[in-house]
Amino acid sequence: MDYSETQTNQTALCTLSEVKKSFAKGARGVLNGVSLSIYGGEILGIRGKNGAGKSTLIELLADITSPDAGERTYGEGARGKIAYVPQELSLYESMTGLQNLAFWGIAVGLPAKTIRTRSRWLLETLDLSDRGRDRVDTYSGGMKRRLHLASALMKTPALLLLDEPTVGADAESIKTILALLENLKRQGCGIVLISHLSEDLSRVCDRVVTLEDGRIGA
């Protein structure tokens, strides 16, 4: 696939132009002039050392925070179809896997029938079908990572943003998660993946950029 040609024939889901961000007046910027576009049907990898600004960048893409300077624009309809998977797990451990998915389905306004259908599909796809009725506090770390991703996918996204989705997961869970990302990409979803694991990035990403001191490195 000629990636440059694909870009010219598509409208970006989200574009950052010379975006800057800091969290205290006079403080050193977390992001210092980042320009980036994300397109449907691609996986963009982001790597960098701790403190490079990766999580801040993905929060900007997710519309959780706003830039101090520069411009952020979304493609038509994309802003309302963003799924964000933070590094911190957002699960209710005293509830079952199915109850967690139902909770997030209700939160995004899905009808009951869709919640049931979507939950079953996600549990099957992420190899959790036999544990859906078990409490989450009985899950392994890798299983929790898979359910955490599933909860964000209860509503089909146009843009999926993932901050270290495989951290602490076992090899089989990582394989399952990356396979789902490739499947979503084939369906036209644009995906941004932050990972410190070069193997994850090289395995599934169409592009990889490096953040260095709040800027896109060479």
Q: How would you describe this protein?
A:
This protein is an alpha/beta fold and 218 residues long. The chain has 2 domains: 117 residues, Rossmann fold (3-Layer(aba) Sandwich), CATH 3.40.50.300; 63 residues. It has 7 helices and 9 strands. The chain has a 6-stranded mixed beta sheet, sandwiched between helices. A 3-stranded antiparallel beta sheet has the order 2-1-4, covered by helices on one side. A hairpin with a 2-residue loop joins strand 8 and strand 9. Helix 5 runs parallel beside helix 6. The relative contact order is 0.21.
Q: Which key features would you list for this structure?
A:
single chain, 218 residues, alpha/beta, Rossmann fold, 2 domains, six-stranded mixed β-sheet, three-stranded antiparallel β-sheet, 7 helices, 9 strands, globular
Summarize the topology.
Blueprint: H1 3-8, E1 14-21, E2 31-38, E3 43-47, H2 54-61, E4 69-74, E5 82-85, H3 97-107, H4 112-125, H5 141-152, E6 159-163, H6 171-186, E7 190-194, H7 198-204, E8 207-212, E9 215-216
Helix pairs in contact: 3-4, 3-5, 5-6
